[in-house]
């Protein structure tokens, strides 16, 4: 009789024990598959949401500043060789090699503007990009959508005693207040926001841009390469990655990955214990059978082969079923934990990991029981007959 036939026959005769082993391995494999898929999807989803939650790259005009002292007097803020940003610079950012990682480009034009209560910092923005960039904004009313409309901060509201749909004057131009920012605790509270194109007209700065804020998707992306590529496209600009923002995002993602990895290790160890215990008990039950095999000429390697082949068959089936079950459960549970922007699907790498990992787990956990079976003394085993 061939060795694989002996293994199949043994599995068939011990259905209850082998079903328990199969069930334990399926639970272990499917749980790891679920964790890998959900962790991967959660990380990508969280990273995407974090990347949208504020800028992580700042672009300003390049200049050389000196602090000078002459005749006992200090002169600070002397700039020379100053560059200038223009409207086309914002468009050129989207032509870099890693443009797929660029989520939001928010240009701004800053000017001191005259308002009825004195002066205020008037910021020209692209409201579509600005609102997408600053998701923490809570706007009473709505963001401006047309000409001669303004969004004001809470401090400006108190200063002007202005309300929704009231008219304010900026550099003598009338603007309707369509939105008021609830207090943010930042400099935004003291700003007046208007459309950037209209800001250029009012302040006579055609095509000018004061700075550009960029939100780049930084989950496994080369942020330094994005900075270098953007700098190459904008030689008159200083491009800086806001490191604390990027580091905070990546730490959040890494903590999730570490948690999933640690939990997976625990589950794998539990699966290994199930296999080890079951195979050891199986060997103990088969003392007489193994003694007969040894008595009729089967070598120690044949006995190990039979036991390991049983483990390999069970592990392969567990890997296939566990992967399928894990994908189904991951798809069903992903929406329940808030993973809505990244879908869980079939992945060849995860499939191979589940299959090969299950086989390796089953084989490794069965090595000692197989070795123990091969070392049984045939004479002692036969005396039990």
Descriptive account of the structure:
The structure is a single chain. This protein is of the alpha+beta class. The chain has 2 domains: 181 residues, no CATH class; 185 residues, no CATH class. It is built from 12 helices and 14 strands. Strands 1, 5, 6, 7, 8, 9, 10, 11, 13 and 14 form a 10-stranded mixed sheet that branches.
Number of strands: 14
List SSEs in N-to-C order.
Answer: HHEEEEHEEHEEHEEEHEEHEHHHHH
* Number of separate domains: 2
Cα Rg = 34 Å
Estimate the global geometry from the Cα principal axes. Answer: elongated
Low-confidence stretches: 66-81
| Percent strand | 15-25%
What separation lies between the terminal Cα atoms? Answer: 22 Å
Number of helical elements: 12
State mean pLDDT (0 to 100 scale).
79
Q: Class by helix and strand content? A: alpha+beta
Largest sheet: 10 strands, mixed
Helix amount: 40-55%
């Amino acid at each position: 009789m061939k060795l694989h036939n002996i293994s199949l026959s043994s599995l068939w005769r011990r259905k209850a024990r082998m079903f328990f082993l199969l069930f334990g391995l399926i639970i272990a494999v499917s749980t790891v598959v679920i964790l890998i898929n959900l962790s991967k999807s959660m990380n990508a989803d969280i990273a995407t949401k974090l990347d949208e939650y504020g800028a992580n790259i700042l672009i300003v005009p390049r200049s050389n500043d000196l602090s000078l002292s002459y005749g006992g007097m200090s002169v600070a803020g002397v700039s020379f060789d100053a560059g200038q940003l223009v409207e086309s610079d914002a468009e050129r950012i989207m032509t870099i090699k890693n443009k797929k990682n660029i989520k939001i480009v928010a240009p701004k034009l800053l000017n001191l503007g005259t308002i009825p209560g004195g002066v205020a910092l008037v910021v020209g923005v692209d409201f579509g990009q600005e609102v997408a960039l600053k998701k923490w904004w809570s706007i009473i009313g709505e963001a401006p959508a047309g000409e001669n409309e303004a969004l004001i901060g809470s401090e400006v509201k108190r200063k002007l005693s202005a309300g929704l749909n009231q008219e304010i004057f900026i550099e003598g131009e009338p603007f309707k207040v369509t939105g008021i920012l609830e207090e943010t605790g930042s400099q935004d509270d003291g700003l007046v926001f208007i459309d950037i194109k209209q800001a250029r007209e009012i302040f006579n700065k055609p095509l000018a841009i004061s700075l550009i804020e960029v939100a780049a998707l930084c989950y496994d992306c080369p942020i330094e390469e994005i900075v270098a590529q953007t700098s190459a496209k904008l030689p008159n600009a200083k491009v800086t990655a806001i490191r604390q923002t990027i580091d905070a995002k990546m730490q959040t993602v890494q903590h999730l990955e570490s948690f999933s990895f640690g939990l997976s290790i625990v589950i794998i160890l539990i699966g290994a214990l199930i296999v080890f215990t079951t195979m050891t008990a199986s060997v103990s039950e088969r003392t007489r059978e193994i003694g007969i095999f040894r008595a009729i000429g089967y070598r120690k390697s044949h006995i190990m082969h039979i036991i390991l082949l049983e483990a390999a068959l069970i592990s392969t089936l567990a890997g296939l079923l566990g992967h399928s079950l894990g994908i189904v459960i991951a798809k069903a549970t992903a929406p329940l934990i808030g993973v809505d922007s990244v879908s869980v699907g079939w992945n060849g790498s995860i499939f191979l990991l589940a299959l090969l990992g299950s086989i390796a787990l089953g084989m490794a956990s069965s090595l000692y029981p197989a070795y123990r079976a091969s070392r049984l003394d045939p004479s002692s085993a036969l005396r039990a007959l």
